[in-house]
Every structure is written in structure tokens, then in C-alpha cells.
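If your schedule permits, I should be very grateful for your opinion on a structural question. Please examine both parts with care and let me know of anything in them that strikes you as inconsistent. The record follows directly beneath this note:
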Amino acid sequence: MSVEENRNCKCECEQDNKVNCDLRREMIQEIRCLEFAITELALYLDTHSEDEKALCLHRKYCKKLKELKDKYQKVYGPLTINFPCNKWRWIEMPWPWERGNY
């Protein structure tokens, strides 16, 4: 799927909610990018443990990822089953086949 196709709202949102859908997709994309960068930096640091710049960047990305995940999960619900919340939110959202997006 191309980036442009991914930006098109296919979640049966009303037009007013399209911005919300786009923001959600952008947040997920940034989470994925940060997770990738953190993994790659960790692999690099396995063989270059004295590289202070890489270590600093790893810490910065980890902090940013935690903040972004917390923000996302407070608004849209859990990313994983490990996210603590006051109620079981997995069943609140329609399944992909219920929205026609599978």
C-alpha cells in the first residue's frame, strides 16, 4: 500500500473525523519508525558500546517513543495487551472486517 493510499481515510469516519484518522495513522507511523531506529541503534551498540552519540540517540528515541505511546494509548486505546487501563478496551473498537477494511 502506498503512503498516499494509507493517508486516505478508509475507516468510515465522518468528514469531520478524517483529521483524527490521519493523525492516528501518523502517530502509528512515527511509533513504528522510532521502534525501528531503537532496534537498529541497539544492534549497533552491541558492537560499538563506547559510542556516546549513539547511546545518547538511543536514550532520546526511547524517551520519545514512551511519550508518544502514552499519548496514543490515552486517546485511541491500547497498542498491546500489556497497556494498563481502567476497563477492557479491546472490544470497544469494531473489528477490521466490521469496518470493511481487511
User: Anything to note?
Assistant: The first helix runs from residue 3 to 7. The CA atoms of residues 95 and 101 lie 9 Å apart. The radius of gyration is 17 Å.
